[in-house]
Amino acid sequence: MSIWCKKFRFTWIDGSLVECEKAQVHVLTHALHYGTGVFEGIRGYWNGENLYVFRLREHMERMLVSAKMIGFKLGYNVEQLVDATLEVIRANEFKENVYIRPIAFAGEGTISLDITSLPVRVAIAAFPFGHYLKPEGVRVKVVSWRRIPSFSLPISAKATGIYLNSVISLAEAKREGYDEALLLDWRGYISEGSGENVFIVRNGVIATPPVTASILEGITRDAVIKIARDLGYNVEERDITRDELYSASEAFMTGTAAEITPIVEVDGKTVGGGSPGPVTRRLQEEYRDIVMAKNEKYMKWLTPVY
Ligand SMILES: Cc1ncc(COP(=O)(O)O)c(C=O)c1O
Asked: Which residue range is the domain that position 203 belongs to?
């Protein structure tokens, strides 16, 4: 039995719900060999009354753009993917926080790098999920690997093959006793974490690297920029140097899995006072209220499941 099937009963694959054990692929699946896939990571929050999926439509829109960038035709539109997500959550009758993983990948048929003749398979799995990073704060290391530049791969696509860059970076950070990796871009400016965007606070101003710093344009990043501006903070999207990170009064990471995670240490140096700062805390509280459907103003970001 797959370890996953202890966590959920049904998966949506190629248009229908199947029992978890049947959601399998052959070892000669193209994507397994060449990283030919695109995916998403989405969260659903149970607030005691209903389960709300955060920015579901935006995630599915990004998945279709990612697919286009690597030359995939999914055969499903945003509405169909949104409906399929709700269908798989309902079938599993989840009443707790969940992580949703849609993936589209090149199937079986050839070992050639020419994917034009291959079927594109689409699956959506969902399972109970808690914290990804320590919510009280992480210690990060600027690793020796650089984030892949957009002149080598379409890095704004959330494509599976690109993640080897993240995997080896995180391994380096963990090997040296850190919680998370921070990658510089090809020019040497701050890019992002292995699976998160990065923000700093300096002189009361919030700053985050621009889309041109080889980042994945995070949906949480976008949400945090909007929330922070609505709270009256000044937010800049601009290049950030490594030493600005060292001298920042606060720093934090954002991502679907990471949500808003304070950075308390970089390369052995404490950030600010070495514990989450007031701006980070304020944003964490606001974000939590929003995803838990406690803030009317942002209800447009939530899709109720039941
Ligand atoms: C490399 C990378 N950067 C940033 C993010 C944050 O993106 P989002 O907020 O859309 O989850 C993720 C997670 O999906 C990621 O994998």
From this structure: 138-291
